[in-house]
Write a structure and sequence with these properties.
80 residues, alpha+beta, 3-stranded antiparallel sheet, globular
């Protein structure tokens, strides 16, 4: 997880969202869902699947992010 935090710290969330929205616009994508899990639904997700943590800088164990062209949302469970 340290490598995800280090990588995420190079840009702030606003910069990452702006870049993502540019790619979304180029691809014709209106809404992008960013889950916390990997294909195996592992309890401890490998760094390669920590997309939500990278995009949002939220490193809690559970949560889902949704990005639209003008808003960004983050859902977590009651522990966070």
């Amino acid at each position: 997880m340290d490598e995800v935090k280090l990588s995420a710290s190079r840009k702030n969330a606003g910069e990452k969202l702006a870049e993502m929205r540019k790619k979304m616009e180029e691809s014709g994508v209106d809404v992008y869902l960013i889950p916390s899990d990997d294909p195996h639904l592992s309890e401890y997700v490998p760094a390669a699947y920590m997309r939500r943590a990278y995009m949002t800088d939220f490193h809690g164990s559970a949560g889902t992010a949704v990005v639209t062209m003008d808003k960004a949302y983050l859902w977590t469970d009651s522990r966070h």
